[in-house]
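Quick question: what would this complex look like in 3D?
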Amino acid sequence: AQSVTQLDSHVSVSEGTPVLLRCNYSSSYSPSLFWYVQHPNKGLQLLLKYTSAATLVKGINGFEAEFKKSETSFHLTKPSAHMSDAAEYFCVVSDRGGYNKLIFGAGTRLAVHP
Amino acid sequence: GAVVSQHPSWVICKSGTSVKIECRSLDFQATTMFWYRQFPKQSLMLMATSNEGSKATYEQGVEKDKFLINHASLTLSTLTVTSAHPEDSSFYICSARDRDKVLYGNTIYFGEGSWLTVV
């Protein structure tokens, strides 16, 4: 069975400083991994995805994540935080079965301070 | 990009009544749709997988008689919360899988969600 653990429930950074949101996964085979962002009272937006191609994945809004099989990690980073990045971030693993069932982590709330 | 529309965005209903939430794929066909529930400040919990033309598959602990799912066409799935109670108040989100896309993970699109408040 697949699962994801987001290691921090809250992360607070200053505007212009780097962002690191940590995610570890568990999967019995090569997983597909995603990061989604959710702004308050809104739906989900896909930031980036890993599907067994390049291990360093670049996404939208300057975010990127690196798949490290040896560490079973898929941490999300951004060199310089912007106020608009404040939101909830979900690390997600996909069931490789035919229905692409998504398993969500608990989420990390990112706060960005001036 | 692909669009998934949910309706209504907000709904308030009285305790004991039923309420229907629609999930539509606007520019692609979806043989599979997923329904999630999200309590405030919590993660998304998968409720059920909706399959076009067949019965939905419910996750453990989800009452199928309370949360009725119908996927009658390739572009529409509905979730009906029957005999709603205040504890059913939540944010419900659907996602749809584009049947014409090939790559894993490149095929699922989320709706904007529906807020249900039962009073």
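Answer marked as accepted. The mean pLDDT of chain A is 90.
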